[in-house]
Specification:
By secondary structure, the protein is α+β, with helices and mostly antiparallel strands. The chain contains ten helices and 19 strands. A hairpin with a 6-residue loop joins β12 and β13. It starts with a strand and ends with a helix.
Length: 395
């Protein structure tokens, strides 16, 4: 077995990226394990093109970032790369449009700058065992770690260690996202999008398009002539066929799309929910909607409950007050195994609460908190909210 690390982070999505960066920046020898060749998770591999959850949910004031540290730094860099002077208003919320290729490049630039961080691409976690430390085996490496951060999105570490995993009987629908280039400017107008939605309904009613197209939504990117489409899926493997049918219909029946080249498809579907950890606290929908205060708050949730349980689009439940809600450190710490932390889509929450917490802006914040808590534990210090918040100030 190779020499060990202090912190091992499993999964290089938005939460894992920030967990690894935070731990390494505080002087902890850290390894990040990513099964693909990209960092950023759903933001690069599934083409999720919007950072949600970055900004306070209060449109009566100018946009304000909800979380300090890495979420603020990544927001600033993405605005620079995409030439956005301010976020975009989407209904009752602010979002930041992001470009997946820029996000992958930015993520790799950030990790390459950290001398305490090793990234293992194309490595899949195959086993984890607990002795005095954690023994970790991938398809290419074996090593030890004092602390582990599970940001795998599927709570795979819990599976290896036989810890309790939470799972909903009705998980949220996955999404298939693709982009089209050389689209006429007219397609960005709200009036056109309303007409297109009606055309799609008629095409489904006529049997030209399948029912899953009813929930299809379009959004302009930061690039001229590019439009993203999102289709929520009844079956995860239906995405490519549905996208192909939709593109053919658009080219044949919608003038702004007549000259588009072949679509850019994602590497993977946009999975929204699978397994979650059981933490020292399980965040609930009521905690978020009511704005419950916690003494061990280490991050803020700024996105409403966005449930996607059908293929017809989201069902939003907004917080009672227009401000972000508390996320306690206990929701990122295992109830059963000391030294295990988690963030992102597999943190400790109910099905409904996860519908708020899974967005990338919030994953940045929970990731950095879990990484800092793991760093403290690895150095023999009991993580507390006060210590973690103090560490965030130095990122």
């Amino acid at each position: 077995m190779n020499s060990g690390y202090e912190v091992a982070v499993i999964g290089g999505g938005s939460a894992g990226l920030c967990a690894a960066l935070a731990a390494a920046r505080r002087g902890t020898k850290t390894v990040l394990i990513e099964r693909s060749t990209k960092l950023g998770g759903m933001g690069t591999q599934a083409l999720v093109h919007t950072f949600c959850g970055l900004y306070e949910p209060d449109l009566s004031k100018p946009p304000r970032l909800a979380n300090a540290g890495l979420p603020t730094q990544i927001e600033r860099e993405m605005r620079r790369l995409t030439h956005q002077t301010e976020p975009t208003r989407m209904g009752k919320l602010y979002v930041l449009l992001q470009d997946p290729s820029h996000f992958d490049a930015l993520s790799k630039e950030l990790v390459e700058a950290e001398e305490n961080l090793t990234v293992l691409f194309e490595n899949t976690c195959e086993d984890i065992r607990q002795c005095h430390h954690f023994e970790i085996k991938t398809n290419n490496h074996c090593f030890t770690a004092n602390s582990v951060v599970d940001t795998s999105a599927d709570a795979v570490v819990a599976g290896f260690l036989k810890a309790t995993r939470l799972k909903s009987d009705t998980p949220q629908k996955s999404a298939y996202i693709f982009s089209l280039q050389n689209v006429a400017e007219e397609a960005r107008e709200e009036s056109f999008k309303m007409r297109l939605a009606l055309d799609l309904v008629r095409a489904v009613q006529a049997g030209i398009l399948p029912p899953e197209i009813l929930g299809a939504a379009s959004r302009a990117s930061t690039l001229e002539g590019e439009i993203y489409f999102t289709i929520d899926l009844d079956e995860p493997d239906h995405g490519p066929a549905l996208a192909t049918d939709l593109v053919a219909f658009l080219k044949a029946h919608s003038p702004p799309f007549q000259n588009v080249p072949a679509p850019i498809f994602p590497d993977v579907p946009g999975v929204r929910e699978t397994y979650r950890w059981l933490g020292k606290h399980v965040l609930t929908q009521e905690d978020l909607i009511e704005g419950k205060s916690f003494e061990d708050t280490i991050a803020k949730a700024a996105w409403p409950i966005e449930l996607r349980e059908t293929i017809k689009g989201p069902r939003f439940t907004y917080f009672k007050n227009p401000r972000s809600s508390d996320i306690p450190l206990r929701a990122l710490m295992s109830e059963e195994i000391p030294g295990i932390f988690f963030a992102g889509r597999c943190l400790s929450a109910t099905h409904e609460a996860l519908a708020s917490l899974r967005v990338m802006g919030t994953c940045f914040a929970t990731g950095q908190a879990a990484g800092l808590a793991a760093s403290l534990h690895a150095r023999g210090v009991t993580p507390t909210a006060e210590l973690v918040k103090g560490e965030i100030e130095h990122l």
